[in-house]
Amino acid sequence: MQEKEMINDYLAGLNASLAGYGGIIAQTENEELRQTIQLMRNQDEIRQYALFKKAKEKGYYIPAQQATETEVIKV
Questions:
Q1: For position 31, what pLDDT does the model report?
Q2: How far apart are the first and last CA of the chain?
Q3: Contact at 8 Å (CB) between 41 and 18?
Q4: Which of 21, 27, 53, 64 could form a disulfide with 41, with the two C-beta atoms 3.0–4.6 Å apart?
Q5: Contact at 8 Å (CB) between 7 and 60?
């Protein structure tokens, strides 16, 4: 497996995990468990952003074009 595929695979996994944390946190009544999951989410967000920046820097990830001011106003 090439570096690009490994980075993209790991990034996809982190993104999937981040998408799931909100639902889990919202349904967790135990305060200690809730805080632990929030900490895990926060750590994954830091990891995801650092990896995103590295993938973008290496040309492995090309983000969508930024929205124009007109598009932002329309939305």
A1: 97
A2: 40
A3: yes
A4: 21
A5: yes
